[in-house]
Design brief:
Protein name: tRNA (Adenine(22)-N(1))-methyltransferase TrmK
Distance between the termini: 36 Å
CATH class of the largest domain: Alpha Beta
Helix content: 40-55%
CATH architecture of the largest domain: 3-Layer(aba) Sandwich
Organism: Lentilactobacillus terminaliae
Number of domains: 2
Structural class: alpha/beta
Bound molecules: S-adenosylmethionine
Order of helices and strands: HEHEHEEHEHEEHHHH
Strand content: 15-25%
Largest sheet: 7 strands, mixed
Radius of gyration: 19 Å
Shape: elongated
């Protein structure tokens, strides 16, 4: 019973791989991938006892004690060199927390791992971190479930220095070219929301000019992409 969101994250994990799922909560994603024969080994990282207990319970129930290792750890500290993980998933948190988790322990990354990241908000942060750390965005996805729109960003170090324009970081280098229905819906929503926020800022007595120009720029970018022919 995997959500469409987690199933889509799982699509980017290659068969026969070794996964670390950081912030796993119930470990639904690694359990599903193990049962489907996609991963042969998985580290299940959790920073909190309660969710880790959930994970342990679900792993035992699925009979996967041999294949999945639940570990109480902050972020990438869950990963040990002997794990030889080749995929890392971090899903269902804000982009700022995801980049914090990556940044604060990045010496643990070998550069060989495929990073599959699903920020609930703050996608731009995540893309900027990937670019700044030499990761090319090799795939992106966008989906709607229960009224929420989610993005998935896949980063890999593939031996070239990625250069992304402001629009790439904001909309996603692949999503903005593809412009599917869900993408259009997301940015129509964002446009309405940002226009509302800007109106409120402008009407307040001491309008913060930095915010005014930030929102004005973003609104212009969104209008441009929604009006462009794809
Ligand atoms: N990844 C699952 C998903 O996408 O459905 C669970 C998402 S849940 C909303 C976020 C989980 O991340 C929580 O269980 C929380 O305890 C965990 N978490 C937050 N910060 C973390 C960190 N620094 N290291 C490991 N886990 C963390």
């Amino acid at each position: 019973h995997l959500s469409v969101r987690l199933a889509t994250v799982g699509k980017y994990v290659k068969p026969n791989s070794r996964l670390a799922d950081i912030g796993s909560d119930h470990a639904y994603l690694p359990i599903n991938l193990a049962l489907n024969g996609i991963i042969k080994y998985g580290v299940v990282g959790e920073v909190r006892e309660g969710p880790l207990d959930n994970a342990k319970h679900e792993i035992a129930k699925a009979g996967l004690n041999e294949m999945l290792q639940p570990r109480l750890a902050d972020g990438l500290a869950a990963i040990e060199p002997g794990d030889n993980v080749d995929h890392i998933t971090i899903a269902g948190m804000g982009g700022a927390l995801i980049t914090h988790i990556l940044e604060s322990d990045k010496e643990r990354l070998t550069g060989e791992e495929t990073l599959i990241l699903q920020p609930n908000v703050g996608e731009e942060n995540v893309r900027r971190w990937l670019m700044d750390n030499g990761y090319t965005i090799t795939a992106e996805d966008i989906l709607e479930e229960d009224g929420h729109i989610y993005e998935i960003i896949v980063g890999q170090q593939i031996g070239q220095v990625p250069q992304y324009a402001a629009e790439d970081l904001f909309f996603g280098p692949k999503l903005r070219i593809e412009q599917n229905q869900t993408f259009i819906k997301k940015w129509q929503r964002e446009l309405t929301q940002k226009q509302g926020i800007l109106d409120n800022i402008v009407q307040s007595h001491h309008a913060d000019q930095t915010k005014v120009s930030q929102f004005t720029n973003e609104i212009e970018m969104i209008k441009e992409i929604l009006n462009s022919e794809s």
